[in-house]
Write a structure and sequence with these properties.
There is one protein chain. The chain is of the alpha/beta class. The chain contains 18 helices and 17 strands.
């Protein structure tokens, strides 16, 4: 690749052809503020929106300033980033954005996490020079997962890029022009009436409070204050390797025991691990896989743990609804067992049990409200909060999370295996299923449980696992754009698999829309992933069917895996949905 010489301020450097000024400046250690730019190389996408005009710089010989995020370096180019002209233009861009922005920073959900707020601080802006008319849009609170406040939209179009280019959902786009311009669905439809999957990746990249999650923390406090309610909580596997980041800990630092300790201090009546339900899911899903293989059933089978992926499938591929596994997700399986088996064992009325979920995902909030996942018109899960919401509650309670002692989860529905831990990363669900399916199909003990050919962070991966006389062909995808490619190839007969795992978010649940903001830094995702595999390695039991509490559940209550009672409580169906 041809190298290009460039001078940025007083520094000379060489960069590959095709490098932007912003990238070259970063190489020289020069900071340039941006609002619209996202580094999407990991997604294979070039993002040059150039809409915020905050990163303007001066190029020798050019009459006008240029946007450094989209302007490519040319050989011999001389760039000045700190000229008075560039600084004034940069400042004016931010001041103009602030002139049409609400001034409710103290109570905004993105307070202290807002890029516009940080940039105003960085540039020393202390007054608004241009006062005038402001946007006055009604806040969209139609969904269970996210809130859209167009009055805080700065037209950076990050959400549009994420929704259309990465996730290929096509919900968000620029609408209107000038002062009336905003990013949203066509005709400004309520988000609940669109094909939105509620994956939350738009929320994860929004630099302001224009897109935020539905905050259910007040509902949890209310439930904990209600003495008539028996309030129990479950914690998803991806939480334990991410929540520490919100308390000054390193990404990937495992905090499983601290989570259990914090939840008891908050007043929950019982504290459980969703990993128990993940092991339960594997027994059902592996049974379904074996059943389809041995009975010439419909293949491939698709894992169904990710609610954003399920909703995407219902909208985008309604002609293929016979492919996904009918298993409910671990979150919903836990709720179903909590309000039946757990209630029976503890002599409780299911109506008196409140099930709270702590999830890395915004779509889990909407999933808990799906009619197809209720039992006798009662929700299996009552309240869902995210990793960020859980951290917010601990800070509100004054809990010093980083220095808590480690405690175990409660028994009956708290035991877990290494297989369930890796549910939190792309490839983990199918690896867990293969560990069990191998022993069930062959009748032999699986000594080496690590299927490393199923691991990685490539958007689409393929692997073949030999089980006895059978070569099981497996497909894995994370991010919905990659899922679309894989499913279209299956539909067109170009790809043939026995089993497929799909996760909506980058890296799977570790990169979920409810996790601490990683700002596109895939190194953070990699550290979270490595930590899950490390916890898996440290488990004495690493196959889901070795979970004694799950086995006891079948013996005492469910009968056999994939049996009649298990099917009634733990399986569901899918609904073709209109593509809007």
């Amino acid at each position: 690749m041809e190298m290009i010489n460039v001078k940025i301020n007083e520094s000379y450097t060489q960069v590959p052809e095709g490098t932007t000024i912003l990238q070259a400046a970063s190489k020289c250690g020069v900071h340039l503020p941006t609002l619209c730019h996202m580094d999407l190389k990991e997604f294979g996408i070039t993002n040059n929106a150039s809409s915020c005009r905050v990163c303007m710089v001066e190029v020798k010989g050019r009459p006008s300033l240029v946007a450094s995020c989209s302007e490519l370096v040319k050989d011999g180019m001389v760039v000045t980033t700190d000229s008075l002209r560039a600084i004034k233009a940069r400042r004016m861009s931010v001041e103009l954005l602030l002139s049409n922005h609400p001034k409710d920073c103290l109570i905004c959900p993105k307070n202290l996490e807002c890029d516009l707020q940080s940039l105003a601080q960085e540039l020393g802006i202390r007054e608004i020079k241009w006062e005038g008319a402001q946007m006055n849009h009604e806040k969209d609170q139609s969904s269970y997962s996210l809130v859209k406040d167009l009055n805080k939209c700065i037209m950076c179009r990050r959400c549009e890029t994420m929704c259309n280019e990465v996730q290929t959902c096509g919900i968000l786009s620029g609408v209107n022009r000038g002062f009336d311009a905003y990013v949203g669905p066509a005709f400004n439809l309520p988000m609940a009436d669109t094909s939105c999957t509620f994956c939350g990746q738009c929320v994860a990249v929004c630099p302001t409070g224009a897109l935020t999650e539905v905050n259910n923390t007040n509902l949890v406090w209310r439930a904990l204050s209600n003495k008539k309610k028996h309030v129990i909580v479950q914690v998803a596997p991806a939480i334990r390797v991410a929540i520490g980041e919100l308390f000054g800990m390193e990404p990937g630092e495992i905090s499983t025991g601290k989570i259990a300790s914090a939840l008891r201090r908050m007043g929950f009546d019982a504290v459980f691990d969703t990993d128990f339900a993940a092991d339960l899911t594997i027994l059902e899903e592996a049974s379904e896989l074996v059943h389809r293989i041995t009975h010439q059933g419909k293949l491939p089978i698709l894992t169904s743990c990710c609610p954003a992926w399920v909703k995407f499938f219902e909208h985008q591929f309604p002609d293929m609804l016979d492919i996904p596994s009918t298993c409910k997700s671990p979150q919903i399986m836990f709720g179903a067992i909590a309000k039946s088996y757990y209630a029976e064992k503890n002599n409780l009325d299911p109506q008196d049990i409140t099930v709270v979920s702590i999830m890395p995902c915004l779509a889990k909030k909407a999933e808990a409200k799906r009619q197809e996942l209720t039992k006798d018109e009662n929700s299996n899960v009552d309240i869902v909060i995210t990793t960020r919401g859980f951290a917010e509650m601990m800070k509100e309670a004054g809990i010093d999370f980083a220095n808590l002692e480690d405690q175990p989860f409660d028994s009956l529905m708290g035991e877990s295996t290494g297989a369930s831990v890796i549910f939190g990363t792309t490839g983990g669900v199918i690896e867990a299923a293969v560990r069990t399916a191998y022993e069930w199909i062959t009748g032999e003990t699986l000594e080496d449980v690590e299927f490393k050919n199923l691991r990685g962070l490539e958007g689409i991966r393929e692997a073949t696992v030999t089980i006895g006389d059978m070569d099981l062909k497996i497909g894995i995808a994370h991010e919905l754009g990659n899922a679309r490619k894989m499913l279209e190839d299956i539909r067109d007969g170009k790809s043939h698999y026995h089993a497929i795992e799909i996760m909506a978010c980058p890296g799977g649940c570790i990169g979920g829309g409810g996790q601490p903001y990683h700002h596109g830094d895939m190194n953070i995702i990699k550290k979270r992933q490595a930590a899950l595999y490390l916890e898996d390695q440290g488990k004495k039991k690493r196959k889901s069917h070795e979970n004694q509490e799950v086995n006891r559940l079948y013996q005492e209550f469910l009968g056999k895996p994939y049996g009649e009672k298990a099917h009634d409580l733990l399986h569901t169906h899918y609904v073709p949905r209109e593509r809007i």
